[in-house]
User: Fold this.
Amino acid sequence: MKYLLSQEEYDTLRLRKEDEIAENDEELQKFCTMVANTLPIKFWGRTEAKPWQCLISRERDNEEWYCDECPSQKVCPYPHKAWSK
Assistant:
């Protein structure tokens, strides 16, 4: 079934969808940051498991941190990820 929409109706639907996507990304980002800051994992040859620490919330201490081993890297919507390679 096809629908004919006025430009105003189309713009309203498009803006509503963009708002939903932005709201979902914000919630997803909060969740991914929480996982990275709390889930203990072993990384880069360390013997003890520690939380990875999300680079968004981590204090920098003049250290470079990357998203390579982050437990939520595949679903994280953060647009400025840092990679070691």
Q: What stands out?
A: The chain has a mean pLDDT of 82.
